[in-house]
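Need tokens for this chain, all 132 residues.
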Amino acid sequence: MTTEVTLTVEARNAQADALARLLDNGSIKVYSGSAPANVDAALSGNTLLATCPLSATSAPAAASGSLTFNTITDDSSIDASGNAAFYRTFKADGTTAVTQGTVGTSGESMTLADLALVAGGTLSISSMTHTV
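Here are the structure tokens for all 132 residues:
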């Protein structure tokens, strides 16, 4: 037997807005290596490649359960060279992870033109959305 739960648009917006408030003044950190099983699992042998700060108000109010994040600041000096594999979003404290997703050139939760990041280069994330 399958159990299905659906949400009203109001409830989806409320969940998305709560996530946005967790990420106000937060950041997106991009890593190489295999992604941990989930966002609560410890990093293991992963290299931090880049960190892009989020805005003070990370995203405006959700519409139809979807957030479109405000401008994401570039990392103008990538920390280490490597292939981007996954990312985590963090609260403003920089240590409390909120979400984790995969990185690819298409079809992933974060899309980059090139996964090969080079130390000292720039990482620009042109847009980011999240849908409940």
